[in-house]
UniProtKB/TrEMBL annotation:
The organism of origin for this protein: Terriglobus roseus
Keywords: Membrane, Transmembrane, Transmembrane helix
Domain of life of the native organism: Bacteria
Annotated protein name in UniProt: ABC-2 type transport system permease protein
Keyword Acyltransferase attributed: no
Keyword hit for Membrane: yes
TM helices/strands, residue ranges: 40-68, 113-143, 149-174, 215-233, 245-263, 315-334, 386-406, 412-432, 465-487, 493-510
Length: 536
């Protein structure tokens, strides 16, 4: 509907006022729920912390640029670092503007209004705030170091706009390129692997520095650096380099043109990645006699979960990511005495909590087939929990194998403690997660194609919100308390003894939750599954 007839559309100011009023009413109505209030407080707290962190980085940038400018040092490395770091960090996080995609297509907007909303969306995201304050700090440092005020204002505004336009343009056109699921999966995995590059550099910086000294750069590399935005911005600060200022302005204008071209195609409804998967798996109806056990049905549901995992690259990466972070972040900790206790359970810790609190997230419209099948809800939940438990066990076993390869030693007490903690944490996660999945289900959009949407689909596999945080930190607190007590009393066997009653109690609570009337009554079961189906 956007832009069907610009002559009949209201003024741009009226359009913005109407959209802001609609967003405000939705926000006020959403605040009637207690969970929304808690989520808003957490979001506001996070934004304040990010703001303080951003201001700190801006102050550091101001001092760095002040000393470099006052001493006549070359500023291009700083500009190169800011430009490349801004783009890479946004790419790793997939920070597309929130609320600036298909939500705007339903309204009859002018193109200028659409562009303004698209660019302003995500202004309070963490990396945008960090980049803004760093650029402001760089400007203050340059002016305090003796730079020309007017020229510094022009250069820093162009440099900031270039960073902002480049980020938006990259994600806008990247969404058009990732029209196939395989391309999305490959880009997601590669970008996630690159995101752990700084840790690898920190661990092996001496070896990498030795390799870099042996590599001879080609002549064209220096030429490319001289026309890069960072070099042009640094040279444009000097009054005698008007050509660099013009080239920087040309860079900004060209990037803005590419962005406007992509936005215009999106505005006209030419997005190539707007599609919904047309194929659907046919599921034969299964009938069960009254005396038949749940075993075959539970196994069939677990097999369906395995098929969904096997055909989804994002889901595969979400399952392997704890092991990747264990390898690159936990190897140093694993060599210490404490690492033999906490590294094995860390392998599958986060993945289980994310998977357990949103068990119907990847079913989509297919969740309605559970309404047609004569299968109790407890059987469905048991099958999904069984698959999550098997995946969790595999992750922990692989993590323990990595630990043994690194340390060549692991005691009996840590292994027993790990097994008991796994049982206690898994049953608690499944108990809370099953109820959460039925009351507050969250759809995982498997048809999304942008990098941020794929990452968000991986993160939204947990849904959870504050309950997910409670599950993560609560499980860590119980396990950490048992480990701390055993270290304090110098009794390694004490941690498994403390964890044993916790595991037994967790199993009993989980078993009773599956037998509750909420999972077996026909009316309540239908209402719960319809609640899940509405999210699809």
């Amino acid at each position: 509907m956007a832009g069907l007839n610009d002559l009949s559309l209201p003024r741009e100011r009226d359009q913005l006022a109407a959209l802001f009023e609609m967003r405000w009413r939705l926000f006020v109505r959403n605040m009637t729920r207690d969970e929304a209030k808690v989520s808003f407080v957490l979001w506001l707290t996070g934004r304040l912390l990010v703001l303080l962190f951003s201001v700190g980085l801006g102050v550091i940038a101001a001092f760095v640029l002040y000393f470099m400018q006052s001493r006549g040092q070359v500023l291009s490395p700083v500009f190169h670092t800011v430009f490349v770091g801004w783009q890479l960090m946004n790419l790793f996080r997939g920070s597309l503007p929130q609320g600036a995609e298909a939500e705007l297509y339903r309204f009859p907007l002018r193109f200028r209004t659409y562009v303004l909303l698209w660019l302003s969306a995500g202004a309070f995201e963490g990396l945008t705030l960090i980049g803004s304050w760093i650029c402001l700090g760089m400007f203050v440092g340059i002016v305090a170091g003796g730079g020309n005020v007017l020229r510094s204002v022009i250069v820093m505004l162009l440099f900031y706009a270039l960073n902002l336009f480049t980020t938006r343009a990259v994600f806008l056109w990247l969404g058009r390129m990732l029209a196939s699921r395989r391309a999305r999966d490959i880009v997601l995995i590669l970008s996630s692997l690159l995101s752990i590059g700084p840790q690898l550099l920190r661990m092996h910086h001496e070896r990498i520095a030795g390799w870099m000294q042996k590599i001879s750069l080609p002549p064209w590399f220096a030429y490319v650096l001289h026309i890069a935005p960072g070099y042009l911005a640094a040279k444009a600060l000097q009054p005698a380099n008007d050509m660099s200022l013009l080239l920087l302005a040309a860079w900004t204008a060209a990037t803005a043109g590419v962005l406007l071209l992509g936005l215009h195609r999106s505005f006209r409804g030419e997005e190539s990645h707007e599609f919904r998967a047309a194929a659907s798996d046919s599921i034969a109806a299964r009938k069960r006699s009254s005396d038949q056990r749940d075993g075959p049905l539970v196994g069939a549901i677990a097999a369906c979960e395995w098929d969904k995992l096997r055909h989804g690259g994002a889901a595969i990466y979400a399952s392997l990511s704890p092991l990747l972070y264990l390898v690159f972040f936990g190897l140093r900790l694993a060599r210490g005495p404490l690492g033999t206790w906490i590294v094995p359970i860390a392998a599958g810790y986060l993945a289980l909590s994310l998977r357990s609190v949103n068990v119907f997230g990847q079913d989509g419209p297919g969740v309605q087939t559970y309404l047609l099948a004569p299968v109790p809800l407890r059987t469905i939940l048991l099958g999904k929990n069984l698959f999550a438990a098997m995946l969790y066990i595999a992750q922990v076993l692989l993590g323990s194998a990595v630990l043994m390869l690194v340390t060549h030693r692991i005691g009996i007490a840590p292994l027993v403690f790990t097994a008991l903690w796994m049982v206690a944490y898994a049953c608690a996660a499944f108990t809370l997660g099953n109820q959460r999945s039925l009351k507050r289900p969250m759809l995982v959009p498997t048809g999304k194609v942008t990098l941020r949407d794929v990452r968000q689909a991986r993160r939204s596999g947990g849904g959870g919100g504050w309950m997910n945080l409670l599950l993560i930190f609560g499980g860590a607190a119980v396990g950490g308390a048992a480990i701390a007590l055993s270290f304090w009393l110098h009794m390694p066997v004490l941690a498994p003894i403390v964890m044993l009653p916790c595991a037994i109690a967790s199993v009993i609570v989980y078993r009773n939750s599956l037998r509750s009337s909420a999972y077996n009554g026909d009316i309540l079961q239908a209402e719960a599954l319809m609640n899940v189906a509405r999210t699809a």
